[in-house]
Amino acid sequence: MTILAQLRNANADFTFLTADGSVAVQYSRRTTPFTMPHGHSHITHELYYLFTGERDYFIRDRTHRVRAGDFVFIEKGELHRTLDTGAPEHERAVFYFTDRLLEGLPPALRAQSGVVRLPEAQRARGEMLAWELVAESAENRPGRDGMIEAMLKQIVLLVFRAAAEKRAASGKRAEPAAPTPLHRMMSEAAAYVGEHYAEPLTLAEVAEKFFISPYYLSRKFKECTGFGFHEYVQLVRVREAKRLLVDTDWKMIEIAERTGFGQVATFHRLFKRVAGCSPLQYRKRHRGADPRA
Q1: Exposed e or buried b for every residue in 186-195, given b needs 16+ CB within 10 A?
Q2: Is 286:246 a contact under the CB 8 Å cutoff?
Q3: In this predicted structure, which of 111-115, 230-234, 241-245 has the lowest mean pLDDT?
Q4: Residue 199: burial class (beta carbons within 10 Å; 0-12, 13-18, 19+)
Q5: Which of 38, 82, 94 is closest to 56 using CA atoms?
Q6: Mean pLDDT score, 136-143
Q7: pLDDT digit string (tens) for 112-126?
Q8: What is the rounded distance in angstroms from the CA atom of residue 221 to the CA atom of residue 63?
Q9: Is this prediction's pTM over 0.90?
């Protein structure tokens, strides 16, 4: 039995990390309902490929319907979460990588977070490369890390080229259609949070903006995005705080105020709960360093 056949027969997760921590490979085949337990962002880029099944993928402030044959690219630091669509059986691979893999790429070829479907002529090639990369990760052969990096770069180039060509053909970045009108409304609510996170935000205030009840917003926001409303507000604020901690020399009190946390003590407590370390530790760990996560 081949290594791929062994993996596909197992209803379990497989994970591999290169020795230097710059690339990670995950493979899963699931037959029961699964929704990512925690929405998150991370300091590596993510490339997701769905071999079989159907998923909803919430990225930043928008829900995308992902079908077999789709790639999903997530830029580092982007808030995201996958959700069940009612058809639980699916098979996917996720590849995480640092900026090093993108060195030398022209700016015009850099993709933005979202769903990318390769042109018809390239789809079989993309899927074959994804399978080969999973198989290479599962076998302990000489030169495995170098082969994984080379193969992943080829997949990334295929995906980025397809995204760039689609952008050029349409003249602008095409916005994906929401799966349902309800998803569209909840995406608009999430976008409102993304624009106003620095202000005091309440469930009642946002519900009033969309002419719905707070109870309805709370229930449907969770259903469509996978996040509780208050959880999402905190995650957006932490995401922006992470960026400011790395990109600026601002003091903690200023970052707390600029990201809507208000009091420094509140900022420290909620940041540590989400990020797993204090804001100062995060700044020291990630400023000027090559990400390894």
Answers
A1: bbebbebbbe
A2: yes
A3: 111-115
A4: exposed
A5: 82
A6: 90
A7: 889 999 999 899 999
A8: 11
A9: no
